[in-house]
Amino acid sequence: MRDQATKLREIFSSAPTSVAALHNTYAVTVASGKGGVGKTTISVNLALALGELGYSVLLWDADFSLANANVLLNLPPKFTVRDVLDGTASIEDALLPVNEKVWLLPGASGIVELARLDGHTLTTLHAKLAAMEERFSLIISDAAAGIGPDVLALCQASHELLLVTTPEPTALTDAYGLLKALAHQDFHGRVSVVVNMVNNSSEQDAGERLCWAAARFLGLRAQVIATIPASVWVQEAVKRQIPLIKLAPSCPTSKSIRHLAHLITARLPDNGHRQEANAPSFLQRLLRFLVGNNTE
Q: Residue 104 is inside which H or E element, if any?
């Protein structure tokens, strides 16, 4: 673990070359509304697919109640965000290398939600994470299920919300509920819908119906970015604790996730979508929303 921390300190030791460089990290929050729709599986495999494309990726397990991204990767953490907050571990100690391009910041089960932490603790967490944020091309935040204040803050702070649902009516209803909660907070960010566990062509329309309802009744613009087919390989990957795109790289589900990664890279600052130099970073925005200040 100390070797890992030493390596991270070397990575983080070089100072950014410009103010603009501080704010080029593209933040994606993966949320769902309903649990059991494959959100964490998509988060983990998407992060790995982006790493395969050559991008440095931080996968943040931001589910503080039932964190399990490390389980899918078979990476037992020695330290988590709780230890960072307690001051018993540094960010470098807590980060787990998945491979040369992808790092995992493990969450912890059963601790207080981010939104219930006091302002001083949130400020401390922000200070510890800020130096790390600028070293990654992308941050993929795997949010908790539901519409808790921590989930809403992550969605609002990110550059893009990946809303994962399935064709099932309950999943679509809960996904709409998350969008409705965001609309009540005057959210107008980018919403990309991922319809997971699709079994046939008729189920592919489920995402379009969700987007239509969001536009018609909530005034939110959303678009379907991916439909991911169901596969027996998904459960096998979970059982073996091997990422799907590693276990079955040629299955249609893996190919769909890799295609999703390509679509997301088109949004990155390096591809002509440079952010304004004075725009707040993801973590600055997250801190602002968590402490209840919605003003940009």
A: strand 102-105
Q: What is the pTM of this model?
A: 0.88
Q: What are 27's strand-pairing partners? A: 139
Cβ neighbors of 285 (< 8 A, separation 6 or more) are: 156, 157, 296
Q: One-letter amino acid identity for 42?
A: I
Indicate the domain borders of the chain. Answer: 2-290
- C-alpha span between 248 and 251 (Å, rounded): 6
Query: Does the domain made of 2-290 have the CATH classification 3.40.1090.10?
Result: no
The per-residue pLDDT string of the chain (296 residues; one tens digit each, 9 = 90 and over) reads 445 555 544 544 443 333 333 457 999 999 998 999 999 999 999 999 999 999 999 999 988 777 899 999 999 999 988 788 778 888 889 999 999 999 999 987 766 655 566 666 667 777 777 777 878 999 999 999 989 988 999 999 999 999 999 999 999 999 999 999 999 999 999 999 999 999 998 898 999 999 999 999 999 999 999 999 999 999 999 999 999 999 999 999 999 999 999 999 998 877 655 555 567 889 888 888 887 743 34
